[in-house]
Design a protein that fits this description.
Strand order of the largest sheet: 6-5-4-3-7
Distance between the termini: 65 Å
InterPro entries: CBASS_pafABC_assoc_protein (IPR051534), DeoR_HTH (IPR001034), HTH_11 (IPR013196), PafC-like (IPR028349), WCX_dom (IPR057727), WH-like_DNA-bd_sf (IPR036388), WH_DNA-bd_sf (IPR036390), WYL_dom (IPR026881)
Strand content: 25-35%
Structural class: alpha+beta
Number of domains: 4
GO molecular function: DNA binding; DNA-binding transcription factor activity
Pfam families: HTH_11, WCX, WYL
Number of strands: 11
Order of helices and strands: HHHEEHHHHEEEEEHEHEEHEH
Largest sheet: 5 strands, antiparallel
Shape: elongated
Number of helices: 11
Keywords: DNA-binding, Transcription, Transcription regulation
Amino acid sequence: MKTDRLVSIIMMLLDKERVSAQELADRFEVSPRTIYRDIETINMAGIPVRSTPGVGGGFEIMQEYKLDKNVFSAADLSAILMGLSSLSGMVRGNELVNALAKVRRFIPADRAKEIELRANQIYIDLSPWMGNRNIQPYLELVKTALQESRMLSFEYADRFGNKTVRTVEPYQIVLKGSHWYFQGYCRKREDFRLFRLSRISNLQMSRETFSPRDYQKPVLDFGDILKTMQTTIKLRVQKSAMDRLLDFCTCEHAVPDGEEHYIVNFPFIENEYYYDILISFGDQCECLEPLHVRAEMKRRIQNMAALYDG
């Protein structure tokens, strides 16, 4: 494939001082004439390749264009490898594979073991243990639409399960709080929206393209707003549930209460999301204070029990 050959030629030229046309032709099993055409294509792409005639001549990339391998420290290369490897587990594609291969070419042989060891000291796996199996193929489809400025259409379910059909211009993929989203301009709402991939169904990429408009980045940090909305409630929690509870607060919020329980000062907002968190702990968690939250929990539990009594 010509594109792969061009990339490989560029990598060889970056790696060596000078390479002859015949050496390149033998390496890629093509004629020297084809190599000359490839070099012309590379020059047209903006990479300055110089030709030196005669014995010992050949092609070389101008020195001021090359990147010194020593510009990256072991920590730099380890961080780049770690990030690319983690992302490639969830977002697949030739771009990431090629990027990993290129970065590895900057690793000096005498430091390869050290750098690989550092890169493997932290492992990030973004794929879910279980759940919606459409997430990864949807990510790939959104990524393609972003690269090609293509419209996306899909059905979107709100938090109550109500579905609407959306046609959207995609602008950014977002990973926030272990959930994947994409930011786009929704033609139905005539505004930018953040769409959670797990709520999307029947995702399709159309042939229609769009001209990118002025992009409004999504607001992802609600820390200051949440602080003004949060109150503290008191919970009595079984020890067996503390590992899950610590996903929502810290150890400093909890003090032992006997051998099997903790009293936890839990940051709480009175909405469906936080009541669902409390209910998810079942009989391992009891709300002690305030009384109106305790009464609301009792009402919700009774409504749940009524479903099964029926």
